[in-house]
Amino acid sequence: MNCKTIFTAAGPAAVLLLTAAMIVRAAEAPDACALYRAGAERYEQGDYAGAVETFAQAVAAEPANAEFQRMAGLAWRRLGDKTRALEYLRKAVELDPNGIPGQYARHTVSMIEANANELSLQEAGPAYFPGHHNPSDGERYYRPRIEALPTLAGTSMERKVKELKSRLLAGRFRMAAAPDELEMHRASLNELRTALTPVQFIESEVERIKTFVIDWAETVLTLMKLYAEEGHAKAAADAFAMLRDSPFMRRGKPEIIAELPAFKEAIKQYGVKQTSNNANNYASEGKRKDKKRAMKLVEVRRIWDKAPHNAFTDLIRFHDRWFCVFREGQGHVSPDGALRVITSLNGEEWESAALIVSTNADLRDAKITITPNGQLMLCGGASLHDQSKNKLLSFAWFSDDGRTWSEKHLIGDPDLWLWRVTWHKGKAYSIGYGCGNDQFVRLYSSDDGKKFDTLVERLFDVGDPNETSLVFEGDTLYCLLRRDGNPNTGMLGVSQPPYTAWEWKDLGKRIGGPHMLRLPDGRFVAAVRLYDGRERTSLCWLDIQSGTLTEALTLPSGGDTSYAGLVLHEGLLWVSYYSTHEEKTAIYLAKVKVEEVECGWGNQR
Length: 605
Prior knowledge:
Number of helices: 14
Number of strands: 24
Helix content: 25-40%
Shape: globular
Oligomer: single chain
Distance between the termini: 20 Å
Radius of gyration: 25 Å
Strand order of the largest sheet: 1-24-23-22
């Protein structure tokens, strides 16, 4: 999980009313929480002077709260006082440089300093947040479908239809954000029960979202009924299809809408779209006719869901057994994060082999590989509970059998997360990324996997680079790199020995949780989370010559998902990943047939 955007894997949330997860220690000042909500309401209503006054009171009650500082800065900005705005926004960055409030504040500071224009709140809506330059579901999905619905011009119903369509358009961004807001709230509830933030705040926010979703859905159903009564059967069916097949129904809590009497009635008339989790229903929308590039999902199964939250995987085959590693804890972000190792002979029945825990850190993002001397090497990041000195340390553990593990070894530098280790000709290579204010990546090498030396001090530093995957082709080294800043598109790097000089190509797409594998025939497969209005884990073809990424197969996935492990075994690509498309965040294993791939090639990471 990217420590810079520790909550954004859940997707874009409302900018104005961030979840209680971002309101740090609000319970220490109960009145401050109420002031924050009152200020947010005034801000939404355009009463910026009132918002400034209310947020100032919230800041006075709780000066160390970055979100209060950020919103005060935004209100001052709306009043045209950039000096006061920067004062509060910079304070928010100082208080929470790596959290969502700090990130938002940093983006706004850069916009003010550059005198740049950006979308107004009215134009952008609450689903917008910095770094996402692709259209949200509000624009990509809802707007074209709403605008395509007829106005029944020249009839007595024209005014009513226009009113309903206007209401739907006005709420499209909130509807687009609702699935991710609900997912974030669900992920937050467990972890916040042990924190100081009042749980009732989250619960009230969930009710607010549900109320809006129901109102919006009922507006669609009213419009649908009006079309039907006026004899416009196709328009009625189109209106209902927009709701039935919407991003909210795919990724939110569909029962909120599905239980509405009018929705149940409409189902009988307009039918049900197939949304089964059967593997055959998840073929890529952009399926290629070229069989040489085809991928086919053979099977997928849930292999672990024992913890409240199971995520961030890797996979390897060792001593004729499968080993899958991942983080488990109470929530997506929780202080009890531990690294679980499970094992299987056949990939069907799995058992726990080990659990690595820490008393002073949240252990995250397990990665596993085989050392030249035949040991398993497990790596992970430790997000420290006490961050007064450092925020994160990287550790490695070693094992001969996957069940008994060595003591931890500190690797790399503090506050640089060594993301994944790749071995080549007896040496280990890893890229660490900065978890502080300075966002950059550093290339390391090691002879034993325990002591890592810096090979390139600043490998890349544009656009907040972070997670990586390294693959060798002969002695040529390729790097797949995630970015979350501006720009936020993925990058492909290439270098020749001694790997101190690099060339980079912009892939033009935002990616998350990157991992890649070179097939025996020379093709590169990448497993990534895609951000284009429909969150999912996908397998993509990576063209290293042109620097392009083409989706080949969408795995059964949705919501909080990604972070795959890849192994080619006996002609099939085995993929471990996690997903929340079946409500609980669980670990999945997929087998994929890749056409024209030679058999017998095992994991060579």
